[in-house]
Amino acid sequence: MRRSPLFEAILNRVPDVGILAVITALVGAVSLYVFVAKNRRPGSSRSRGNTASKDDRLDFLSKVRRGCFDGCVVCMSWEVLTEGGQWRAAAREALITLSTSMTVYLMCRVASEEEKRSILAMLKGIPRLVRHNILFCETAKGYEAFSRQIKPAILVTHDSAQASFLGSVLPNVVLVGSALPGSTVTNIGCVSELTC
């Protein structure tokens, strides 16, 4: 007895081509549903709409303070913590609090090796902040590249252009020190607002 290929056997047993069309349409519909459901993740900027209200901002900050993001990755630019080579008010304490409950990546823009050594000296003694999570770059594009590669749950930055762009890519972007109205970005005055 000769064995026939699968599709030939199916075609011989199916009396009408209309049934194949129905099966094809059904498989296509299921595939489309799975594709749409996969791209509509809860909490993503696509499903939240184009703007974040004040209630969304407060809800996000309360989730951070309650520990809903414990164990998650947060990327933070060095400029939100320091100014002129000195810690901003309560910034060191906020970094300590965040680093004990989350995996913190610090993104530092430097112009010289001396500046890099100074930053590393300032960060000595911060618990659970490991050296390989302190990243250095020379341009603003470096921050963007780090953020897109790491894909953090939270990005904390000082640059409004970067926040605007990455707000459409990352789920939670926090802009420190300035406001970006009409976007999904959360605006805060200082980094310590994330912890208190």
From TrEMBL:
<keyword id="KW-0472">Membrane</keyword>
<feature type="transmembrane region" description="Helical">
    <location>
        <begin position="17"/>
        <end position="36"/>
    </location>
</feature>
<keyword id="KW-0812">Transmembrane</keyword>
<protein>
    <submittedName>
        <fullName>Uncharacterized protein TCIL3000_10_6440</fullName>
    </submittedName>
</protein>
<dbReference type="Pfam" id="PF22978">
    <property type="entry name" value="HAD_Pex22"/>
</dbReference>
<dbReference type="InterPro" id="IPR037485">
    <property type="entry name" value="PEX22"/>
</dbReference>
<keyword id="KW-1133">Transmembrane helix</keyword>
<dbReference type="GO" id="GO:0007031">
    <property type="term" value="P:peroxisome organization"/>
</dbReference>
